[in-house]
Amino acid sequence: MSDKRRVIIGIIAAVLAIGLSGVCVHFIESRSMKEEQLGDSGDWGEGDEETILSFGDNDYVTNDNIDTYLLIGTDNGGDDKGEGFNGELADFITAIVIDNTTQSYAFYQIDRNTMVEVPIPEANGGGHYTEQICTAHWYGKTPEERNNNLVNAVSELLGGLEIKSYYTLNMNNIGKVNDAIGGVVVTIDSDMTAVDPEFKEGANILLTDGQAEKYLRARFALEDDSNASRMKRQEAYMQSAYNTVIGQLRENPEYISELYENLDGVFETDGSARDASVIADKFEKYKNMGMISFKGKVETNDTLGDGVEHEEFYVDTDSIVSGLKKVIKLQVSE
């Protein structure tokens, strides 16, 4: 299996594993690479260096061996040619935190409207500006710069936790993912007929490619137009998508090859083939602590100075700390 193919398969595993429910991902060819992987990613036990995470006036320390990866879903906007180097907003942001010491991992779903000090590249004036974390992906001349700018913003939100690599999907390509999977079945939990006539409350629908994007991205036409509601739909879709892939693989061992062919070139990543295979192997062997979201309060303000009221999510930092403690052994620094 080629390195490029392992990357694609690893990305598929990472994205779909949001719905992981304890089923082993045997279709990943990771066992044969175990010794090589360990040589690259370090010991799966205690960490060699002390890590300090800072939240306001409080510092927390851990000696755990931690790997963190970022899943990003971007919108359809952006202009690579503009003088302002305007990219896409990040609609979907999830950090995968893997603790090799506790042998556990979790998916930390980050509200796109979380207010943070967004780093501004020099090309856009430099410095920091308090705005929604999704805007961090707006700044940068190239896709790599924009992805890394969001990586830096998320790392800062998580107290300085180092992010090893990112995996980015433009939400315009959701239809391609949905098609490659063979369609995903979801249950509509509220009236969404304003978005699609078939989206009636309680309906079980095999989403078409166009409907998948509507289901995952819809907000402003709905009675509950909060981003929190959309995040719940994203989680439900990923759970169903994962179950669908597992079912297909049980019936057709060649299905993973078909996924590779259909999704080649859809994702952006700075991760290596080895990283992707290591992630998949740890998904199989470690304890899944599930999807974790942070608590906070929602306000609406003209954040961007454009005359429009935007949703702002002010995260409770104690919620971040308690969430991380479900995976990482953290202690207050003396």
Q: What's the topology here?
A:
Blueprint: H1 3-16, H2 34-41, E1 46-55, E2 58-64, E3 66-74, E4 90-99, E5 104-110, E6 115-119, E7 128-132, H3 143-157, E8 165-170, H4 174-181, E9 184-187, E10 204-207, H5 209-217, H6 227-251, H7 255-263, E11 267-269, H8 273-285, E12 287-293, E13 296-301, E14 310-315, H9 317-324, E15 331-332
Helix pairs in contact: 1-7, 1-8, 2-8, 4-5, 4-7
DSSP strand tally: 15
Helix and strand content put the structural class at: alpha+beta
Q: Pick out the low-confidence regions.
A: 17-43, 78-85
What string, H for helix and E for strand, traces the elements in order?
A: HHEEEEEEEHEHEEHHHEHEEEHE
What level of helicity do the residues show?
Answer: 25-40%
Summarize the structure.
By secondary structure, this protein is an alpha+beta fold. It has helices spanning about 5-15, 35-40, 145-155, 175-180, 210-215, 225-250, 255-265, 275-285, 315-325, and strands spanning about 45-55, 60-65, 65-75, 90-100, 105-110, 115-120, 130, 165-170, 185, 205, 265-270, 285-295, 295-300, 310-315, 330.
Task: Tell me what the structure shows.
The protein is of the alpha+beta class. Helices cover 33% and strands 27% of the residues. The strands form five sheets. It has a six-stranded mixed beta sheet, sandwiched between helices. A three-stranded antiparallel beta sheet has the order 1-2-15, with helices on one face. A two-stranded antiparallel sheet has the order 6-7. β4 (90-99) and β5 form a beta hairpin. α1 (3-16) crosses α8 (273-285) and α2 (34-41) packs across α8 (273-285). The longest helix has 25 residues, at 227-251. It is globular and about 55 Å long.
